[in-house]
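hey can u run this one w/ zinc ion bound, need the structure tokens asap thx
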Amino acid sequence: MSEDHSVQGTLSLVYRLQTMDVEVFRLVADIQDAAEQIQTAVAKVSDLETRAEETMQEVANLEARRRQIDLELQDTERLLAEGKKRQKDLKHPRDIQAYLSEMEFRRDEKDRLEDEMIKNLESQDLLKKRLAEIEAERVRERESLELLKREKETENRAREEKLAALDREKVEVEQGFSQDLLKTYTRLKGSHRNGIVVARLMEGTCEACRMTLPPRTVTEVKKRQRIVTCQFCQRWLYLPERGTEGENVFQGSRVKGVSPTP
Ligand SMILES: [Zn+2]
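ok here u go:
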């Protein structure tokens, strides 16, 4: 580790550390996001499983009722047939009247049961079709869940590797820090929005808050003799070396409220 105790050297170290912290933040957020995506997909599959079970139960209930109707129909038909046999033995008008009302009641009962049977079978057909659709969707969602899991596992492995590498690199960079500076950085990281402590000075503008700084401040920063803070957002202003301006800590940042520098 090269020892550079100039202000510029210090700020360049802080900036490196901050870049790593932002990257760690992004990686952790991406891992969380992956977990949430998997959770959503798992919930979808389990919702379809519940719906499939409920529909199967409905079909089973209808089927049980259908068997019941079947038995009731057989009974009714038997009673009607027996009645017909009894008919010729009836002489008394009162018995004939009672017989006729009973037969009418039985025939109505038979009609009612046959209607219910048709409706029952139609409902079963409909539910079975719906069940097949739910099952097909469940299979599809299950497959895409497995795919998503594998994809996220691969991505997370790469993220974990990057995190481990960043951890090692951070330890190395932090060795170049004085304890005081490290403490100040840690404190500022907690108090500044989004943990951004150092902002690059880019064409007279603060990278973090995008405010144009007065020429006097710019001159002060360019002197590189002391740490100059942005008067608008209080961040340490860092003047990058020529040629290192390409990499932007804010680029594509998930950090809310920090817009990418154009
Ligand atoms: Zn600022």
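The domain at 26-169 is CATH 1.10.287.1700 (Helix Hairpins). anyway lmk if its weird
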